[in-house]
């Protein structure tokens, strides 16, 4: 980058290093060329401001269980760690990269996954075991078709992400907002892994009953087991009424499973 005329200040910013370190890298490369890549300083702590004992204390604090006076391990990040080191030991590193040594190999800054307090993980696992036990005979019986079902929606959206752009110039990306979308109800065969999709206007009982009747026409000589989630229209009055009186659905067996995955977005 320096050979292309980029100033050392910009190079230091791009590689997240101090400008003096970048200067030393360039000087070493000019003197030793490729040999300068092997400095012999890998994993050493000779220039560390923190002592080994202080680092052990920091790692102990990071692994400590959550309490009223301690931050839970999963919520530590570089800014919080930086504030702690400064307050506890009076030491501030010029580069945030210098704080990475304090984090365990299995711990790194990221957003935590969301979990609804209404979900009972034990009950979900128990229900999944029950479903597997219920459909196991159907999977072995050639007279049964076992399908996993779910709704999905396709919509054109513009998503803006970070990119390398010219400094000092405004970059504009023209986007078109559209509410145009298409909903689908899909069925995945658990024996041959073939998928069938049906267009629906929206997820409701009327559209679901229409698709189920259309689906059963394809398996007139088979019994069909459908495993789907607990959407409210999957257990509505119209669904139950049609199952009890419609001959097209008399060979249909529905199994409700707990919601175990989050909403997915496709680019």
TrEMBL record:
According to the UniProt entry, the coiled-coil residues are none
Pfam families assigned to the protein according to its UniProt record, in alphabetical order: DDE_3
- Enumerate the spans annotated as Tc1-like transposase DDE domain: 147-254
Q: Which GO terms describe its molecular function?
A: nucleic acid binding
Q: Where are the transmembrane segments?
A: none
Query: What protein does this entry describe?
Result: Tc1-like transposase DDE domain-containing protein
